[in-house]
Amino acid sequence: MPDYPINLAVKPQVEAFFDPATNTISYVVRDPGSNACAVIDSVMDIDYAAGRITYDHADAIIAYIQRSGLSLEWIIETHVHADHLSAAPYIQGKLGGKIGIGDKIMVVQETFGKIFNEGTEFQRDGSQFDRLFKDGDTYQIGGMQAVALYTPGHTHACMVHVMGNAAFVGDTLFMPDGGSARADFPGGDAGTLYDSIQKVLALPEEMRLFMCHDYGPDGREIQWETTVGAEKAHNIHVGNGTTKAQFVELRRARDATLAMPQLIIPSLQVNMRAGEVPTDKDGRAMLKVPINGL
User: Fold this and answer.
1) How many domains would you assign to the chain?
2) How do residues 225-236 score in pLDDT, each as one tens digit?
3) How many CA atoms lie within 13 Å of 170's alpha carbon, on the beta-carbon side?
4) Within a domain: residue 269?
5) Is the dihedral of CA 217, 221, 227, 233 positive or negative?
6) How far is CA 149 from CA 53, 157, 167, 203, in A?
7) Domain-embedded: residue 291
8) Is residue 265 part of a domain?
């Protein structure tokens, strides 16, 4: 049993919101003993070709929280996403709550601050967020205790958030037939990702696991919930006793075939700022495109 607090008797209500444009699943997680809730990995809509941002996905989450009479206490980012833009500040502006991410965000900000040639006005201390979590940190959602687990490998700042009998794994794992996320971004490492996955698989077998992404392998319907036991038995990349060496070989070979995510350039600039769109010297919302920088 892990040495951090786990309480399987607490069974939060989880409502999922699937974004087909980015294959992202966002969640509203409700404390079963109160009206307090958290939002996990929200999405801000962008038409990149037109340079237009909208909020349909976030508005659906906001409407659900308001309709259900919930009180938003936390807006959690499992990591700095490279495939969608966070709507955290938009949701915070409508409903309140604190925005939280892992404390290794500072490493990510330093790495991509250089790539995007950010000036000294771009703070690289995580101060854009309300809370920076360290491995094993706990926090409250109403009366429900949550714990943040450091799980690097996909990125340097990935965390899994455990809330009662539910764990939100970000990009650390996919559904059993989807395997795992890539580990070839700056700060990623296949061996480190394997170790982080073992940390997740050390959770109780009945622990519910909720994915940040699903791509419907072989044409199946989109899914986002599984269990630790199912992942250990059936995950195509790490299940059934796959060794670290086998995983690293598989992951590196697969990553070499993958194209960059379509929204990586806007996503990184926005998400390392806690969902705020950067501005130019005149205060206009503006994104950069680093040439041959990624």
Assistant:
1) 1
2) 999 999 999 999
3) 31
4) no
5) negative
6) 32, 11, 10, 11
7) no
8) no
